[in-house]
Amino acid sequence: MPAAFELSKVSVVRPGKLLLDDVSWTVEEGDRWVVLGPNGAGKTTLLQIVGAAMHPTTGEAHILGEQLGRTALAELRTRIGHTSTKVADRIPPGESVRDTVLSAAHAVTGRWNEEYDPEDVKRAEQTMGEWGVSGLARRTFGTLSEGERKRVLIARALMTDPELLLLDEPGAGLDLGAREDLLASLDVLSESEDAPVLVMVSHHVEEIPAGFTHVLLMRAGRVVAQGPIESTLTAENLSMTFGQRIQLDREGGRYAARRAAYGRRADRSHDTSDTTGGNA
Ligand SMILES: Nc1ncnc2c1ncn2[C@@H]1O[C@H](COP(=O)(O)OP(=O)(O)OP(=O)(O)O)[C@@H](O)[C@H]1O
């Protein structure tokens, strides 16, 4: 089976700044990845490459079988669901929730005079139902709470039944209950057989849904470590990523991290015996 996407030695350069530096990353069908790193590490830039929203300056990116630079980006983007604050900012505040989701069928933000099939309407109702926002259908996007917005954006991203779903900080700005509700929904999605390949960007290990399989850790535009979550998400790798000694705990398939106290073992796993990582 071909990879869902493959980046080979990708760099992104802007005047006076190296945003991504020699990033190689392969994601296979069925994978659920989380991308972790501090502010400014390049996570959003990386997702923009994978989401066919930006070309690499150097290196090659093959996304869903198409090579960036040799394919129409707009067409490729219809196969990818992408949620981010940039997408949220493009949605007119007066747009109804229903039209916010529905208009994804034409890859537009702000419904105008496009025509929608009954299948489009049915699909919009289905994804709104699955993400618990049917009751908000007539509300305007601008009046929603942060948690409600996040769910509406995911329903919108899933509207076109994408092969790849990119979630840029879906947990940011959510209260504890809303975050846990979102993680439970993402966990259900990640377990479903026809789920798209999932890639989620986060700052916090606490936001990793239990069903996620792989992690990529970034710092200053470079990959610090990547691979299966069990062996790669270690205190040692997190400490390198965030530039300070981190203690990592794991319980019930969920992670928690904080600055390590001196003299304490940095990795502590309560439900597995094989969590790796160095002593701090
Ligand atoms: N067009 C640009 N020109 C110059 N620098 C840029 C440009 N776009 C982004 N950057 C810088 O590149 C770095 C990486 O940005 P990016 O948004 O990818 O990081 P991030 O890991 O998503 O950060 P955060 O966690 O804070 O959202 C940042 O320092 C940012 O200021």
UniProtKB/TrEMBL annotation:
Q: Where is the ABC transporter domain?
A: 5-245
Single GO MF annotation: ATP binding
- Organism domain of life: Bacteria
Q: Which PROSITE patterns match?
A: ABC_TRANSPORTER_2
Q: Which InterPro entries does the record associate with it?
A: AAA+_ATPase (IPR003593), ABC_transporter-like_ATP-bd (IPR003439), P-loop_NTPase (IPR027417)
SUPFAM superfamilies reported in the protein's UniProt record: P-loop containing nucleoside triphosphate hydrolases
Q: List UniProt keywords, sorted A-Z.
A: ATP-binding, Nucleotide-binding
- Biased region (Basic and acidic residues) positions are 264-273
Q: Where is this region: Disordered?
A: 260-280
Identify the PANTHER family for this entry. Answer: SKFA PEPTIDE EXPORT ATP-BINDING PROTEIN SKFE
Name assigned to this protein: ABC transporter ATP-binding protein
Q: The organism's lineage?
A: Bacteria, Bacillati, Actinomycetota, Actinomycetes, Propionibacteriales
